[in-house]
């Protein structure tokens, strides 16, 4: 459980008269630097606090002095029900890079980046909780916690995870201002004789109106209407293309933006659908052999952090991993 990791016996020092809730909030945050203010307030809402003279309530008036406070462990346990749990299965989480502010993790193909509900299991976020359960209380959101970005369910590779709220805010701002370099390896179907694809794809991408699962290029339909609403700017650059066999090529890609399904949509639009992509490859069922997973891997990530250049590479995705 999460909240029982907090100390049950606390000493509250009051220098100026105030109410218990205000003083206790300050003590919880000062004595547990990893704790978010949201979590501290939740503890005060659900926890039962007592002292030698009885129970403390939110509006209990405290004069100057020292107070011995006990947090009832059963009430702490009830409060912990509202927080995300680590994955029940012990997964071998790979930490590619770590510092006091963030981890760069290795996400597995088929693994969700985030849970959708508190009782879900299997996400990268909950793998991180196996290493440090206190992270469940360290952020203002209950589900995303320190996830700086997302990778598609079938995509593997570098996943950036902040270890505190300040780092999360700063890293997300860097993503938004395109200060993070993101490189991918994509395995695509491209039959011999198909010609050279363009090296830069800049078509905007939209959510399809009829579904929230698929994206599409924001091109005009046959009736002259634009697909979807609110086109999103997207830039995908092909850095290298190597033919593996008569049907498959390996492509090194860099993206400036981070639109959902961006690489999958852009490469499919130029006749290079990803191996194993059941969403955007119309001929997938006819292809032999059938792929075991999506042929997309977040191979490298780089950015500047506190005076230091960080560039991290994940393990290589090989052809035999796909079939």
Please give a quick description of this structure:
This protein has 323 residues and is α+β, with helices and mostly antiparallel strands. The protein has helices spanning 20-31, 37-46, 73-80, 124-131, 165-176, 262-269, and strands at residues 9-14, 18-19, 49-51, 54-56, 61-62, 65-71, 95-98, 102-107, 156-162, 181-189, 200-201, 205-207, 215-217, 236-243, 248-255, 296-305, 308-313. Helix 1 (20-31) crosses helix 2.
Strand content: 25-35%
Total number of distinct structural domains? 3
What form results from the Cα inertia axes? elongated
CATH topology of the largest domain: Pseudouridine synthase
Radius of gyration: 25 Å
Please provide the ordered H/E string of secondary-structure elements.
EEHHEEEEHEEHEHEEEEEEHEE
The CATH homologous superfamily of the largest domain is termed Pseudouridine synthase
Word description of this protein:
By secondary structure, this protein is of the alpha+beta class. It folds into 3 domains: about 5-80, Structural Genomics Hypothetical 15.5 Kd Protein In mrcA-pckA Intergenic Region, Chain A (Roll), CATH 3.10.290; about 95-175, Pseudouridine synthase (2-Layer Sandwich); about 180-320, Pseudouridine synthase, CATH 3.30.2350. It is about 20% helix and about 30% strand. It is built from 6 helices and 17 strands. It has helices spanning about 20-30, 35-45, 75-80, 125-130, 165-175, 260-270; strands spanning about 10-15, 20, 50, 55, 60, 65-70, 95-100, 100-105, 155-160, 180-190, 200, 205, 215, 235-245, 250-255, 295-305, 310-315. Strands 7, 8, 9, 10, 11, 14, 15, 16 and 17 form a 9-stranded mixed sheet that branches. Strands 1-6-3-4 form a 4-stranded antiparallel sheet. α1 (about 20-30) crosses α2 (about 35-45) and α2 crosses α3. About 35% of the residues are buried. The model has no long low-confidence stretch (mean pLDDT about 85).
